[in-house]
Amino acid sequence: MNQELLRHVDSISRDTPIDKESIFLDIEAALLSAARKFYGEVDDVAAAIDRMTGDISVSKGGTLIDYREFGRIAAQTAKQVLIQKIRENERTSIFDEYAERKGQIITGTVARFEGGVLVVSLGRSEGFLPRSEQIPGESHNNGDRIRCLVLDVRDAGNQVKIILSRSHPDFIRRLFELEVPEVQERVIEVKALAREAGYRTKIAVTSIDTKVDAVGACVGVRGSRIKNIVDELGGEKIDIVRWNESSQILITNSLKPAEIVDTSLNFEMNRATVVVNEDQLSLAIGKRGQNVRLAARLTGWDIDILTPPEYNKGLVDLERSLKAIEGVDEKMLDRMVALGVINLLDIEEVGTDPLIKELEIAPELAERIATVAAEEAKRIAQEDAARRAADEEAKRNQTSPLEAALAAPVPEGGGEGSAAETTPAPALSPLDAAAAAPTPEPAPVAGGQ
Fold this sequence. Notes:
Blueprint lengths: L1 H14 L4 H20 L5 E5 L6 E5 L2 E3 L5 H30 L4 E10 L2 E5 L4 E4 L15 E12 L2 E7 L3 H11 L1 H4 L3 E9 L3 E8 L6 H6 L4 H9 L4 E6 L4 H8 L7 E5 L4 E5 L2 H8 L4 H10 L2 E5 L1 H15 L7 H9 L5 H7 L1 H8 L3 H35 L3 H7 L11 H4 L7 H7 L13
Parallel strand pairs: 6-8, 10-11, 13-14
Antiparallel strand pairs: 1-2, 2-3, 4-5, 4-7, 5-6, 7-8, 9-10, 12-13
């Protein structure tokens, strides 16, 4: 029986991550519970198991007793305590294992769906892929192999809840580590990443080795490396951006393939104004604004996209409005533009403190500039609104010749020889009027034939 106990301990230890010593301690705890159930709540009961022979010894007050005398109820108590202890140890072991793997990619098998939540079999445990962490539009079938990121591990009472994700940005980062050895070896560093799962990802990379091209290494020979990642993501587009410490260059790189004319940075508002030609505007903004939105998140700058006429109009309004202020000259205006102040609204957002500090001007002049800028911005906005309203009204009132013909009133004809016959029909259009007007007849003379 002692050898049988050792075989059971070995078997449990192999099938679970619980070590043998923990199992022996659980059995000893179960024996103590059985002894206390048999003798009542006493403190002088001890139980021990020889790790080499498997011999069990239970003592009360220092005197060995036969644990077989505990009876069925005590044995049942010992069994329940043992099962509970083993389950607790196994749960703790699973929690510790996956807590260490948090942020890593694991591979599992699709087990089932539970109300939109995808349950993934991970071997001796299960992971949960919530709908919010799934890639939009992606579908899976039972039995499919699936790779996920361990997002969180929670101890939910009698269960360890392993939360998985395929939509988290770190999932992309870990895939690059798996597919690109240089990223795994830290020769290439992922500096920033922005993602809209299922649609597009922008990832900025740089190399610490001048001989290694960061972008080329991530793409791979004939695009082999990036293709594997894209296939894993179900066709999600990935833009690999070359990192640069210069914010202007980084913003330019992040908005590719659009061609950038100029970039103005406003450090006070953390805003970048990017100028692109009209034919590049839609490309820079992207479908539903996706390209500029991801570029903003990747670079950490708020990005405004303007065409040259829009950009120049802001500068012209700024110069015309502020030049009338005594003490404002061309040099000061140039310094404002260098600060990223490119229109009247920027002055209101920046405030007077940066003007006083950076332009080295008196507070009174800064206040005057801010006041005039606010008034002029409001006036120009009202003029623009009125002009747009007038244009819309003109478009609504504009009618085609056919619409005019259909809308014209039709005259009601009188009796023969009446005055109505002597009056030409209303003109429909210059050509229709000549063809449709009746020939005038002389009015009848009283008493004549």
